[in-house]
Amino acid sequence: MTHPTDIPRGLNSVALPATFHTALALAEQGLPVLPLREGKGPMGNCRACRNNACGGRPNMKTPGPCECAAPCHAWAAATTDPHTLTSPTWAPAWRQAAAVAYHPGGAGVTVVDLDNANAIAWARQNLPATRTVPSTRGEHWIYLGTMASPNAVRPGIDIKSLMSYARWLGPGTGTMAPLPDAVRALAVKEPTAARPASRPVTAAAPDGGGECPHRSPVYLERGIAMAEQRIEEAPDGIHRTVYRMFLAVLSAHGRCGCLTDAHIKRLFTAAQGRGESLRHCEDAWFNAVTALGM
Prior knowledge:
There is one protein chain. The chain is of the alpha+beta class. The chain is built from ten helices and eight strands. The strands form two sheets. Strands 3, 4, 5, 6 and 8 form a five-stranded mixed beta sheet that branches. Strands 1-2-7 form a three-stranded antiparallel beta sheet. A hairpin with a 4-residue loop joins β4 and β5.
């Protein structure tokens, strides 16, 4: 564990809050941690990452390929590295922190967040007993194993695991059980018929102007089909996968003029088939265009 004598001078200049020392202790136990501001939200983007300049999402839940040293990308900033936690770059965040959060997926666990008495009663009837942690209004049930992190799977029930964070509320009581199929099933939605977007796709292909190196349309078709396939088959991290596939297609075909609106519609359709909203698709497209300077 890191001791006060190991903390850099930049962090010794003022008294550090209890949240900082709690985070260090949890990180030593292998729990990836991050600071939360008042209101249980993550720290905002730093100046370098503001307005998604780094490719991150506006709500900071799904960052782009950013290597920022500040804790400004929510769950993706969570770490067990004591040197990062005690660095001067993180010092302002710890001084503002109202609580400590952790990345359940990074620790190999899933938190079933039960927000009220009715949700707890349902869990007791339908889920196997596991480690339980009291929360402000209900309980966190923690299982060993990871999965996606959908919200509102039932009234008063959220799931926090991969690409999510949960507030640290203490170690809890009881033995942690393996993640059951009953919890995984909560994330499975009934299939619905495909329907057109509520508004037309507003993303457009960048203007061409460069010499087109694609002597045959087969090359472009292969690239679009590969991007569609990777989006459709992504096991998790769908937001990041969509952004990276948009970035890859634009970097290969965005400057010469061979990319059309029909190709973009195919990519958006693949992403929406995995649950992405039209707005998320447009945001990812805009971020990719901006990142490539188009």
